[in-house]
Design goal:
Elements lengths: L1 E3 L8 E4 L3 H6 L6 E2 L15 H10 L7 E5 L3 H14 L3 E5 L13 E2 L26 H4 L2 E4 L2 H13 L6 E4 L1 H4 L4
Parallel strand pairs: 1-5, 2-3, 2-4, 3-6, 4-5, 7-8
Helix pairs in contact: 3-5
Length: 180
């Protein structure tokens, strides 16, 4: 996972994190619309792993693609990019600036109700702290902890994209939900 300054898509699958109406109006060629708000629930909880992988399948993602994440806010791009990475997406690049609608070449594609592919990449389980409230911090290694999943994943993304390795992520299980 890394940041990029260019929107050259080549063979990359583009994920547009802007609000659905903006993405559907104008985005990069073959961009798939996935607003960050579609991935977060009350109290900033994540969907279950099963539901998350199903949702990625409704975008036509198998996890084998090289993905470019674009959007208008850093937090939205980082959250979606980090979540794709944690879910096992092979390669994730995140545009490090707001996507300019002047670069748009057509409408983005809304995700389907049914999955068109099966997301098959293994989840990066080693990066998740399942019970961070009970861990001995010294034994756990470098980790990102936050009060909720949304904040934790954004912080995690920024550390990993900046070159951090072996970092794990977790959040308060009592207020922010679980990974599964």
């Amino acid at each position: 996972m890394a940041y990029t300054q260019t929107v050259g898509t080549g063979e990359m699958a583009v994920i547009d994190t802007r609000p659905l109406s903006e993405c559907k109006r104008a985005s990069l060629p073959r961009a798939r619309c996935l607003p960050a708000s579609d991935l977060i629930a009350a109290h900033r909880q994540l969907p279950s792993e099963r539901d998350l992988l199903w949702l990625f399948g409704t975008l036509g993602l198998t996890g084998e693609e090289n993905v470019l994440v674009i959007g208008d806010t850093a937090s939205g791009r980082d959250f979606v990019g980090g979540l794709l990475y944690l879910a096992g997406q092979r390669q994730v690049r995140i545009l490090n600036h707001a996507f300019s609608p002047q670069l748009a070449e057509g409408p983005g594609q809304e995700r389907g109700q049914l999955r068109t592919t099966i997301f098959t990449q293994p989840v990066r389980d080693e990066a998740w702290l399942v019970h961070p409230n009970e861990l001995d911090a010294a034994a756990a290694g470098p980790m990102i902890l936050a009060p909720d999943a949304y904040t934790a994943i954004i912080r995690f993304t920024r550390q990993v994209a900046a070159g951090g390795q072996g970092i794990r992520v977790g959040w308060n299980l009592h207020t922010g939900g679980t990974k599964r």
